[in-house]
Amino acid sequence: MSETASEDKRGENYVFSDMQENIGHIRRMLGDPADLVIRIISIGGGERSCALVFLSGLSDKAVIDEQIVRQILKAGRIGQEDSGLEISEVLGGLRNETMSVSQVLEVNLWSDVIKAVLYGDTAMFLEGADDALLVGTQNWKERSIEEPPTEALVRGPREGFTEKIETNVGLIRRGIRDMNLRFVSYTIGRRSRKTLILTYIQGIIHPGIVEEARRRLDTIDIDDAPESGFIEQWIEDSFLSPFPQLLHTERPDKVRAALLQGKAVIMLEGTPFALILPTTFVALIQSPEDYYERWMIGSLIRLLRYFAVFIALFLPSVYIALVSFHPGMIPFKLAFSIAAAREGVPFPAVIEALLMEGTLELLREAGIRLPKPIGQTIGIVGGLVIGEAAVQAGVVSPIMVIVVAITAISSFAIPSYSAGISFRMLRFATMLAAAALGLFGIILTFIMISIHLVRLKSFGMPYSTPVAPMFTSDWRDLVVRSPVTFLTRRPQFMQTKNANRASKRGKRT
Amino acid sequence: MKSFEYGDREIGTAEVFFGVSNMVIGFWILTLPRSLATITNSSDGWMSIVLGGGASLAIGWLIASLCKRFPKMGLMEMTKSVANRATANVVAMLFACYTFLFVSYETRGLANIAKLYLFDRTPEEAICLFFLLVVAYGVAGSSAALLRLNLVFLPIVLLILLLVLAMNIPFLNLNNLKPMFVTDWKDLLKGTKDTVFSFLGFEVILFYNAWINRPQKVRRAVLGGLTIPFTLYLLVFFFVIGIFGSEVTKNTLYPTAELAKQVEIPGGFFERFESIFFTIWTITLFSTTAMAFDVTIIALRSLFPKTKRITWVIALCPIAYLAAMQPQSVTELDILGKWISYAAIAIGWGIPSLLLGAAMMRGVRGNGCAS
Amino acid sequence: MGALRRGIAALTVLTVISGCWDRLEIEDRGFVVGSAIDQGENGTFELTFQLVVPSAMQGTSAGGGHPSAMAYQNITSSGATLFKAARKMSNETSRSPYMEHNKIIIISEALARAGKIQEVLDVFIRDHEMRRAAKVMISAGQAKKLLNVKPDIETLPVQYINSTSENPQKSESIVPPTTMGRVHRFLLETHSFAIPRIAQTDNKISLSGAAVFGSDNRMRGFLNGEETTGKNFFSGRVKAGALEIELDGKAVVYEIKGADRTIRANVSDPRKPEFTVNVNVEGNVGEWHTDADLLDPKVVWAIENRVREKIQTMMYSVLEKLQKQYKADAIGLSDYLNENHYRIWQKIKDDWDHGENLFSKCRVIVRVNAKLRIFGTIERVQRKGD
Question: Which residue pairs, CB below 8 angstroms and at least 24 apart, start in A357-364?
Answer without folding.
Answer: A357/A316, A357/A404, A357/A407, A357/A427, A357/A428, A357/A431, A359/A386, A359/A390, A360/A404, A360/A408, A361/A424, A364/A408
